[in-house]
Amino acid sequence: MDLLVVGAGEIGRWVADTVSAEAAPVDASVAFADRDPDVAADAAAGRDARTADADGDSVHDAVCLAVPMSAVPAAVEAYAPRAAQAIVDVSGEMTAALAAMREHASDLERASYHPLFAPPRVPGNVAVVVDEGGPAVEGLTAAIETGGNDVFETTAAEHDEAMETVQAGAHAAVLAWRLAAEPVREEFHTPVSAALDEVADTVTEGSPAVYAEIQRAFDGAEDVADAAAEIAGADDEAFADLYERARGDGEGRDRLE
């Protein structure tokens, strides 16, 4: 498989490493395209890969879009003519991505993957919606699974709704805690605060642009803010009710009205 990876950042490089790994079940050659040619050249230089002109017309068996979520619809339109067999994305928002693929790549295999981890923490869970299957998509999925990842199927609606909780809401809660926290001596940390501090370190080691994209793409932060405000203003009885709902089995963790 000749694969064009559009976007030579961390996720694009992870895709290239995954499909070209020695144990991967596909015989893949990889080309990187990026708006910054130096970034594409850097990605290719450390791998058995080559570069392709971001504005060129080279045609490849498959195209994988590893670009910011907001850029996916336009990227689908631009790069669908360069895919002979399949077009997929790994950007993290599925509804708009798949709609663009149906519009501009109706004759191709189509799938949206979301690695639910940062590349330094591979392997992990990878959500996928296969909109139009075939041998190219099957090969990509098999390569991801061979890399030790757990690929699970979902729908675009289920995925994007889940991201409101596991990304937008979770990130907002962690960042808000870090911003509100005062420095304390290490000895004062409890198991809860120490764990939160570690999670906050993880969240803040990435790119702010990526996290801003997540907040723009998915609701969730406002629900966290509303819940925090209700906790802060609760009397003993109301707090006890909130506490019981929070430690419920899921049914009790309904969103605050």
Automatic annotation (TrEMBL):
Single GO term (MF): prephenate dehydrogenase (NAD+) activity
Any single biological process term in GO: tyrosine biosynthetic process
InterPro entries assigned to the protein according to its UniProt record, in alphabetical order: 6-PGluconate_DH-like_C_sf, NAD(P)-bd_dom_sf, Preph/Arog_dehydrog
Entry keyword set: Oxidoreductase
Statement: the UniProt record of this protein carries the keyword Secreted: no
Protein name: Prephenate dehydrogenase
